Amino acid sequence: MNEILIKNTTNAFEEKFGTEPKTIVLSPGRINIIGEHVDYNDGYVLPAAIDKVICFAFEKNNSTTSKIFAIDLDEEFEIDLNSEMKLNNAIWTNYFSGIIKYLKEAGLSFEGVNCTFSSNIPIGSGLSSSAALECGFLFGLKSVFNFEISKKDMALMGQKAEHWVGINCGIMDQFASVHGKKDKVMKLDCNTLEFSYHDANFSDYSLVLLDSNVKHSLFTSAYNTRREECEEGFKMLKENFPSLKTFRDCTTDQVVEIKDKLSPNVYKRVDYVVKEIARVSLACAALDAGNIEVLGQLLFDTHEGLSKDYEVSCAELDALVGYAKDDASVIGSRLMGGGFGGCTINLIKKGQEEAVKEKFAALYDKEFGIELKAYDVKISEGTSLYKG
């Protein structure tokens, strides 16, 4: 699939600029296996880069203007490197301007480039196409102009660009995009940025994302409320157990001990967070032991927590996970991402993928009248040069 994407991106470059590109970059989307809504609660996440990518083609153009062509949108954009970077009405252009803005602020020297790009990351599916865009463009400039910049600093610069665009994201998406390794997931501490790799050998099972094709408008207000509830809960925990430094130091027994001092909602949020942080470590142990059935049950447990205790699911996502629980071919399923829509991530027995997709699509259409989309994903390399 990526070979076709690379060919199309290269051909478009030749048509647009009249020369062959000198540099090809592949920048992946990402999934998060487990560890949802704990990145801002001092927990761990377990992301991985996937084989859905944005392909970039680059060449220096020996000027002070970068010319960028978005193949899928059939739109082009020019950036005068000598001018002040400003936000544009065409949202996609702002990610490029943001990267240039922060490269300039870092004192790095570079000239204009010609660039084309195209993607097979499904937009709006929660696979972080914006992080792939930022990191891919930055990696291409690093390669073309031989910047001395670490992967960690690339991820942080991508995050800054996203904040500049107006999306106050955490570091997970950019970090997974640049640090991804084929057949590996990473346990990432979003505070210290320390991480460790774990084998992602799913053995007799395939990873399939099922796209609910809905996005409910509750997300932003609910997200802010959940953060406030967790802060309130931890404050009470710390008052009762002064030695606690973060949620990751808490036990479920401690949460139960102060249950009467918390509102019902705050108790549920805190209980979920403490259990989910523990599940990330259990998931790593299951992967290390090759016990994928245990991992699958952890996914089901996480969804139950996200739905009943953290309350960020919706009828459509709960239905999809319900279908999975009733199907012996699926050993694990949960909503992935912020919630209120987007995808479920599923572990499906190899050889049964198509049957499950067809069955669930029919059930989903009958229940909601909505088309169900499915994406097969494999764990892949992070942002990297294509060697040809």
Description:
Helix 2 packs across helix 3 and helix 3 packs across helix 4. The strands form 3 sheets. This protein has a 6-stranded mixed beta sheet, with helices on both faces. A 4-stranded antiparallel beta sheet has the order 10-11-9-12. The protein has 11 helices and 13 strands. By secondary structure, it is an alpha+beta fold. It has 2 domains: 204 residues, Ribosomal Protein S5, domain 2 (2-Layer Sandwich), CATH 3.30.230.10; 172 residues, GHMP kinase, C-terminal domain (Alpha-Beta Plaits). The longest helix is centred in the C-terminal third of the chain and has 26 residues. The two termini are 14 Å apart. The relative contact order is 0.16. Helix content is 44%, strand content 23%.
What's this model, at a glance?
This protein has 388 residues and is of the alpha+beta class. It has helices spanning 2-17, 91-105, 129-145, 151-165, 172-179, 219-240, 252-257, 264-289, 292-309, 315-325, 353-368; strands spanning 23-32, 44-45, 47-60, 65-70, 75-80, 113-119, 184-189, 195-199, 205-215, 330-336, 341-349, 373-377, 384-385. A hairpin with a 4-residue loop joins strand 4 and strand 5 (75-80).
